């Protein structure tokens, strides 16, 4: 994984290269951004540059071979895990290293939930525990294999529990010579403050549409028009763009669910018979998989955002074209405005949060429906 293989982020690449050239690389860095912005591939690409920079020229070929497969003995990974049917009672990251290498080499822009699916713990919560922290201390106390730097990449560092954080604090504060930590996170506020304060922070912005288009055309068999449409829906996330491309055929079904939902919500005020329709709709969504539920809720967010833009005549930004020709998108848009859009987004994002944490889907979608009924009628 190289800097050239990472989409966009040219100024961050330049910053990292300059720090390396000037021998001013911090011993601990915090890469903050969504998985779709490229934090993990950037961490791996920088580790590659770090290895080459500090190692003898005759070792370069060996280093590149190791790094291409993520098997370099001085490159260490930590990531959230949990027990599986085939794991030990107290598993650590190295027990899943083959899965993790395959996961990253296939697509380094994947999400934490994608990783959970990969190792079969999608119905559990992964974490980085104190056993993991002990293993990190032991690994970094060993002599460097190549005589160069040792790099520890902690992916989803916000999943470190308190015991693990406290055990690693001293090591991050005063690491062994020529040892570097790169902590990768989407939620820096969930990392122990004393650890955050000892890391140099780099914030990763959402990717530009042009970068996402380039990545989609390169990775998938898409034409430029299809790639552009997906990039406009991806909110600057390449992982979201890939999911949209993979599940693009679901949009028509999602639209049917959405139209049934909003029509019932409009009619439900003061009409108890329609309330039963909303409850039946909630039952239907509750029977779907958690991943389908999340993708549908994100689709709803996108639909409402497009309606808002359409209502305010920002037509150059409106790409949505309903499959159902009977659905009057312009008329629907009139009900979505600054008066209710923030509240609609908030309840949808809250629903996603609870779905991700295995909440009762029937209750989640029932509550969401009643909330939407109220907000759609807001003046």
Describe the structure.
The protein has a 5-stranded parallel beta sheet with strand order 2-3-4-1-5, with helices on both faces. The chain has helices spanning 10-21, 39-53, 60-68, 97-106, 112-119, 130-141, 162-173, 193-196, 209-219, 224-233, 238-246, 251-267, 272-286, 290-311, 329-333, 341-356, 361-376; strands at 28-32, 75-78, 150-155, 179-185, 200-203. By secondary structure, the protein is α/β, with parallel strands linked by helices. The chain has 17 helices and 5 strands. Helices cover 54% and strands 7% of the residues. Strand 3 (150-155), helix 7 (162-173) and strand 4 form a beta-alpha-beta unit. Helix 9 (209-219) crosses helix 10 (224-233). The chain folds into 2 domains: 3-205, Rossmann fold; 247-376, Up-down Bundle (Zinc Finger, Delta Prime, domain 3). The mean pLDDT is 90.
Query: H/E order of the elements?
Result: HEHHEHHHEHEHEHHHHHHHHH
Structural class: alpha/beta
Q: How would a crystallographer describe the biggest sheet?
A: 5 strands, parallel
Total number of helices: 17
The dominant shape is elongated
Number of domains: 2
Distance between the termini: 52 Å
Low-confidence stretches: none
